[in-house]
Amino acid sequence: MNVATSPCSSPIKKRLATPDRFIPMRESRDQRHYLLNTPTEEAGHLSPSQKVFNESLAKSVLSTVPSSNNILSFQSPVNKRKMESFEQTLKQLHRSRSISSTNMPHRTLPAGPDTILDAPDIVDDYYLNLLDWSSDNVLAIALGSAVYLWNGDTKETSVLVDYEDVIITSLAWDKGSRFLSVGTNDAVVHIYDVLASKRVRTLDGHNARVCSLSWNDHILSSGSRDSTIINHDVRVRNHHSSDFNGHTQEVCGLKWSPQGNLLASGGNDNLLNIWDIRSTTAPRHTSNQHVAAVKALAWCPWQANLLASGGGTADRTLRFWNASTGVCVNSVSTGSQVCSILWSKDYKELISSHGYSENQLILWKYPTLTKVAEFKSHQSRVLHMAMSPDGTTVCSAAGDETLRFWKIFDKAPASKPSLHMPSARRALFDSCIR
Fold first, then answer.
1. In this structure, how many other beta carbons lie within 10 angstroms of the beta carbon of residue 339?
2. First-last CA distance in the chain
3. Which of 134, 182, 270, 332 is the most exposed place for a label (fewest CB within 10 A)?
4. Does the pLDDT of residue 297 top 80, yes or no?
5. pLDDT greater at residue 386 or residue 28
């Protein structure tokens, strides 16, 4: 007779002896340990490399033999000797990775300027460029109608020229440090042989004051309030070689790239232009991302085609450009009018000078653009900066009629290529200005 079964009396299914997918079973773990550590008949046929692999695998996976104390533990207690050895390995690895930073010489940033010099009658005009430092360690500064030279080696000061009734609006050394170009508010550019203390050329062509100058070997470029840029070939009598017309207002920033193939120009029309020496019809790149006058320009000395620019009071921003593509690759708000920019020759850093509202100098890391330090000492906007030829000292000039010298960088540990022209080329260049 068949007896019907109810749901309550259904047979109990036999439990499968399979490991849970989340909780490992002790039996399977012990089996793995046994297989990894117990010699088999095939062990004698393993190659030496296979034996080493098996031994390494057993040590890394199981570390030690199974312990009876497996509650709340996936492995046996840690071997203290192995742990100490592991910690020592980590310490050695850390030391090896940080050795480059520990070998760097200690660097102390100045709390204030090392030297302060009076600069009476300096024109407090944002659009002018009145300070430059030669590769022969001679600082040129325009004070009103006169150009003064300060020798960084002897600390002596001399007057190169005094026009009396003409205001100097710009100046720039040539790379050989023998010739100094001087722009004035009567729309001309003069070139002086500093060694002979005499004027050797006068260049015309502008219709308004010349407020920016930049040398590129035998080419001297001048920017003017008439919104034009003239390229002068100083080797020939008819010096006017070409024009760049891409601004609608005063050209207050002008810098040739270290390679000599690109010219950056900034204007009071808030435009930044990058010109190719091979084309004069139009700029290679034009940007209107700044919302104030673009005076501060600087090419990076250790990364090709990297250009830094800074905007005026309404902008207060540093921007960094890939000059090959014209793309802005980085930017940072400074909080103050940007007046000047200098790159360090030996550090991945740059320094900017500012006007309203802080009148400070700021040292930046690149490319992180973290602020390393601020230097506050001037009582008015810091209009100009120049760097010593050894790359260690920055000179700042401000509307408070002072020059202040800041030793911000250390000397390079290894010798760097000279900024001077080769002697034969320099002699040829010096003799061809006419």
1. 25
2. 132
3. 332
4. yes
5. 386
**Closest C-alpha to 215, from 77, 419, 49, 7:** 419
- 89-100 pLDDT, tens digit per residue, is 555 545 444 433
402 - beta bridge partners? Answer: 118
Taking residues 176-202, report their average pLDDT.
97
Report the alpha-carbon distance of residue 302 to residue 347 in Å, rounded.
9
Three-class SS of the chain: CCCCCCHHHCCCCCCCCCCCCCCCCHHHHHHHHHHHHCCCHHHHHCCHHHHHHHHHHHHHHHCCCCCCCCCCCCCCCCCHHHHHHHHHHHHHHHHHHHHHHHCCCCCCCCCCCCEEEECCCCCCCCCCECEEECCCCEEEEEECCEEEEEECCCCCEEEEEECCCCCEEEEEECCCCCEEEEEECCCCEEEEECCCCEEEEEECCCCCCEEEEEEECCEEEEEECCCCEEEEECCCCCCEEEEECCCCCCEEEEEECCCCCEEEEEECCCCEEEEECCCCCCCCEEECCCCCCEEEEEECCCCCCEEEEEECCCCCEEEEEECCCCEEEEEEECCCCEEEEEECCCCCEEEEEECCCCCEEEEEECCCCCEEEEEECCCCCEEEEEECCCCCEEEEEECCCEEEEEECCCCCCCCCCCCCCCHHHHHHHHHCCC
pLDDT of residue 433: 63
Does the pLDDT value for residue 262 go beyond 90? Answer: yes
Residues 6+ apart with CB under 8 A from 133: 139, 140, 152, 173, 386, 387, 388, 389, 395
In whole numbers, what is the pLDDT of the chain averaged over residues?
Answer: 83
Confidence (pLDDT) at 7 = 44
Question: Which two structure tokens, joined as six digits, stand for 397?
Answer: 């000039």
Tell me what the mean pLDDT of segment 195-208 comes to: 96
* Residue type (1 letter), 235: R
Q: 178-189 burial string, b = 16+ CB within 10 Å, else e?
A: bbbbbbbbebbb
The rounded distance, in Å, linking the Cα atoms of 235 and 223 is 20
140 or 78, which is more confident: 140
How far apart CA 115 and CA 128 sit, in angstroms, is 24
Q: In the predicted model, what is the mean pLDDT of residues 197-204?
A: 96
Residue 355: closest CA among 37, 126, 90? 126
